[in-house]
């Protein structure tokens, strides 16, 4: 337990993220006593009294937590302040400063402050600049004596947490990074991609490096191809205004899907440190080859009825489905395609990574089993839901002959450990940021690499006027997506469906 208090300033405190993810995460961390005390400074544009805001948060919490501990909630309420203010208004920052100074005074110490940008990205620049102008980004002032000792209280006492999307293309991502790094040092910046906080994504490393059997075959000698699916059954819902300017490629491929690809394809880190692990992940992103044939390597789709959704341009060409083939140019993955597919309004919500092994080789003319008689072994890592791992194996059919048939070996998290033990990604990420562990956060060079790839695809689409294929909701996307993988002699696969 970390009993030291912290100040958490959340911009966008009345937004969706706060209600669905951040309040439950804070509550659970406090309940488990992972954090001693959070002084929440909630900044929002809605006109609410403190008591209105607390009711609003309580209602949000009720939707996510089965039984609220009322005594704990009373304590949490005491530590909440709500500032109604515009992000460009200096008064907002003056009000934050007063609350921060009050906390420092009360504890007679420099209370660490965390600034969380949970607003739509259009506000990032304004808030960052205002944090700098108001001096809030500097944290506590370092005395001369401390400076001589090489201590910098400012850096140690202030951190910034920022949600994806980090930019809208390579150039906007770079200007955001430039601004961020002109105000904060890298060790103060926590860029959140919540997929990295998922227990099952972290388990990929455990599976691979804690078991002698996987890593030796985790390469092009044994693996034919890899598939990563991030399928959603919902449409864009109330997020039309945001989504229509973004599309599937920017919304989830540039970040969540490339991070999953990186965790799957990375080399073993040199050390168990945040830097080594991030280095290994980012090396992968830097080695994904640019897509030079957008037409042959990608499919864009839009679900039927999208144009009738709320806040969507009636002639929108935004893709709600993406499929793509990527190659990782490292000796380990030489020639192994990574197929990515994602979409809204697909048949079910499922995220899965599957490694498709090569079929057994025949020695000379002798084939114990002919390639046509066997199916590939497939290792499926089910990221969500029904978190677990399955391995497709060929086994002998019972009887006197020697015929083989596919079967599944299965590991299920909930059965093995109970369904409630895994921390939610935001619990994990919030706690890691408070502890100063950057392992599971995106880094500027990785963001640059992934935006380079995505921007290349966006430009190629625009240049070639790439067609937008239509698909019916509740299916697996456009027919063109099946044709796309079939022309390589492969088929889309989901372990959960096989
Ligand atoms: C978000 C995207 O980053 O991830 C959403 O903006 C998407 O469009 C969501 O729905 C998916 O996250 P999860 O954890 O529900 O798979």
List keywords for this structure.
about 500 residues; alpha/beta; nine-stranded mixed sheet; six-stranded parallel sheet; 17 helices; 15 strands; about 40% helix; about 20% strand; binds 6-O-phosphono-beta-D-glucopyranose
Could you characterize the architecture of this molecule?
With 498 residues, this protein is an alpha/beta fold. 38% of the residues lie in helices and 21% in strands. It has 17 helices and 15 strands. It has helices at residues 16-31, 50-62, 70-78, 90-107, 124-133, 144-148, 153-157, 170-183, 199-209, 240-243, 247-265, 274-287, 294-297, 413-417, 425-435, 444-464, 479-486, and strands at residues 2-11, 35-44, 80-84, 113-117, 158-163, 189-192, 223-231, 298-303, 321-327, 337-343, 350-357, 378-384, 388-396, 404-412, 468-471. The strands form two sheets. The protein has a nine-stranded mixed β-sheet, with helices on both faces. The protein has a six-stranded parallel β-sheet with strand order 3-2-1-4-5-6, sandwiched between helices. The longest helix is centred in the C-terminal third of the chain and has 21 residues, at 444-464. The radius of gyration is 25 Å and the shape is globular. The two termini are 43 Å apart. Bound molecules: 6-O-phosphono-beta-D-glucopyranose. The site of 6-O-phosphono-beta-D-glucopyranose has 4 residues, from helix 11.
